[in-house]
Write a structure and sequence with these properties.
The chain is α/β, with parallel strands linked by helices. Helix content is 28%, strand content 29%. It has a single domain, classed as Glutaredoxin (3-Layer(aba) Sandwich), CATH 3.40.30. The protein is built from five helices and nine strands. A five-stranded mixed sheet has the order 5-4-3-8-9. A two-stranded antiparallel sheet has the order 1-2. The radius of gyration is 14 Å and the shape is globular.
Length: 153
């Protein structure tokens, strides 16, 4: 599936978070959502991105945003990641890759000439009606919050 674009309805999903709770995108209707997809828990880039959202979480929630991270890691991995870095937001387990496929971020990657399938680090900014307002494909992991705020300015 092709990546989604601004103006499109964000596909709903239902999956478990790091606490084993069932979370759906529709649970956040009426709120702005930063839905970010990342390759793997507790790796350098993914940790930098998660910690940047953590460090700016109050500023984001103060502007009416919820932050939701999604990767193909399981609930147990997400729980370890959340605990280790004191992450204050939902991390969604997408072990069957249905969410990453709906959002078009499950892509062929190439590392050192070896091709494999993986998650393209991507951030979607979704408005209160569930419409995608912005898509960030070139995520700056250390400044991911600022990238979002710059788009909203």
């Amino acid at each position: 599936m092709a990546a989604l674009a601004p103006g499109e309805k964000a596909p709903d999903f239902t999956s478990k978070n790091q606490n084993g709770e069932t979370i759906s995108l529709k649970d956040f209707t009426g709120k702005n959502v930063i839905l970010y997809f990342y390759p793997k828990d507790d790796t350098p880039g993914c940790t930098a991105e998660a910690c940047d959202f953590r460090d700016n979480y109050q500023a984001l929630t103060g502007k009416g945003f919820e932050v939701i991270g999604v990767s193909a890691d399981d609930e147990k991995s997400h729980k370890k990641f959340e605990t280790k870095y004191t992450l204050p937001f939902n991390l969604i387990a997408d072990t069957d890759k249905k969410i990453v496929e709906k959002y078009g971020v499950w892509v062929e990657k190439n590392m050192y000439g070896k091709k494999y399938m993986g998650i393209a680090r991507t951030t979607f900014v979704i408005n209160t009606e569930g419409i995608i307002e912005h898509v960030i494909n070139k995520v700056d992991t250390k400044n991911s919050t600022q990238q979002v705020l710059d788009l909203l300015a």
